[in-house]
Write a structure and sequence with these properties.
This protein is α+β, with helices and mostly antiparallel strands. The chain is about 40% helix and about 15% strand. α5 packs antiparallel against α7 and α10 runs antiparallel to α11.
Length: about 425
């Protein structure tokens, strides 16, 4: 087992419970990952082993077990599934995960450079969907970075994003009975500096899902620009930049990007958590709306144009009301001149401006006649006036097939 963990050979043939190791997939400072096949069902899995020298450290072992608990409790198409947890015969802990084919986002960026807006946005939106499930369970990832977004190749040529490594996740609901269940000490800075929110970089223990929103903003910034939002040659330099320095404007680096998209990235990267998107769902909705707007040729971010659209709509409504009032006044004056007295039709304003609405005239109140028997001639003249009064256009229903005029133009809110 020690040779397996030391990376000697590919590990093929080693048996761990019901799994047979087939090859080594990779490893890091804390763990080594192997591909394995289930002996009964023949399905492939990935097994992550914690290095034995680290398993003796209580805090590190706790983080490894926390990853198994966090990922195992979350069911999402965008979170790498954990299916088992155990110990090898020599006591080495391991996690069994679903086997993924593809590459992580960091490898894609290293290979291809900055991504187009549609690809980068789609990746982050999928990550938002996975994180929404985690946040709903009280799990905050706290270490999102391109290496932890795995891109599985789909049959249609697209990517399905899977979030990896919940090793330093904060498990609020799962560990509600233990205030120090995340295994960290007060003031300890955990995570990857270039993707940390300022409050996380300052060692605050009272972090919430907003730090994941910030990390996604940093990932999207890097995916679009080809450079990190927080540069630095050392961990200390990067942390100093995170806490004190402004971020270069994304649109200055990528002038071809829609202004609304660049604004959304910078909103996610606000130093003040209250100024960021309230949750990953809001971030996903904003990005999705922007790409929908872009594909329909309407330009920048829908969200950023809501105010101007509303103002345009209000101005258009004001114009419609004014025209309607003028038309009604003209009708009244004309009727006064022709008949010598006013006869005002009681139109509902919405009915007047919408030619496809069924129009019903509101009848005038019936007033009892006060004509005396001795004034027959006056009665006859009044009866003639009444019979010759023109019929009101609204005295019957007007169907859409009988338009009363040219429909009013529709305001363009695209």
């Amino acid at each position: 087992m020690q040779a397996l963990l030391d990376g000697e050979g590919d590990g093929a043939g080693h048996k761990i419970g019901k799994f047979i190791i087939t090859r080594r997939l990779g490893g890091g400072g804390m763990s080594v990952v192997y591909e394995a096949q289930h002996t009964d069902i023949g399905r492939r899995f990935a097994i992550k082993f914690l290095r034995p020298e680290l398993a003796r450290h209580r805090a590190i072992l706790a983080r490894f077990m926390r990853e198994a608990r966090a990922a195992g409790a979350l069911e999402s198409d965008h979170i790498a599934a954990t299916v088992d947890f155990g110990e090898a015969p020599d006591g080495t802990p391991y996690i069994v995960m679903e086997y993924l084919q593809g590459e992580d986002l960091a490898s894609l960026l290293a290979r291809s450079g900055p991504l187009d807006a549609s690809t980068a946005t789609a990746i982050v939106v999928q990550a938002c969907h996975g994180l929404a499930v985690a946040h709903a369970r009280g799990v905050v990832h706290r270490d999102l970075k391109p290496e932890n977004l795995f891109l599985c190749q789909r049959d249609d040529g697209g990517h399905q994003v899977k979030i990896l490594d919940f090793g330093i996740a904060k498990l609020r609901s799962l560990d509600s009975d233990d205030s120090r269940a995340d295994g960290t000490c007060p003031g300890e800075v955990i995570g990857t500096p270039a993707y940390m929110a300022p409050e996380q970089a300052l060692g605050s223990q009272d972090v919430d899902q907003s730090v994941d929103v910030y990390a996604l903003g940093a990932i999207l910034y890097e995916s679009l620009s080809g450079r990190r939002a927080h540069p630095g040659r050392s961990r200390s330099e990067i942390l100093y930049h995170v806490i004190t320095k402004p971020i270069d404007r994304l649109h200055d680096l990528r002038p071809d990007l829609p202004h609304g998209l660049a604004d959304a990235v910078h909103r996610a990267l606000e130093k003040d958590p209250k100024k960021r998107f309230a949750c990953v769902g809001d971030l996903a909705a904003n990005l999705t709306a922007q790409m929908t707007s872009r594909s329909s040729g309407s330009g920048d971010c829908v969200a950023s144009s809501v105010g101007s659209q509303s103002a345009d709509s209000d101005r258009w409504n004001a114009v419609v009301v004014a025209v309607a009032q003028l038309a009604l006044a003209a009708f009244t004056v004309t009727n006064w001149i022709l008949r010598g007295r006013p006869s005002i039709a009681r139109f509902d304003l919405e009915t007047l401006v919408n030619p496809c609405t069924s129009v019903e005239a509101t009848p005038e109140p019936i007033v009892p006649s006060r004509v005396q028997a001795s004034s027959g001639e006056h009665a006859r003249r009044e009866a003639q006036d009444s019979s010759s009064q023109p019929t009101l256009a609204g005295s019957r229903s007007i169907s859409p097939a009988e338009p009363t005029g040219t429909p009013l133009p529709t305001a363009n809110v695209g």
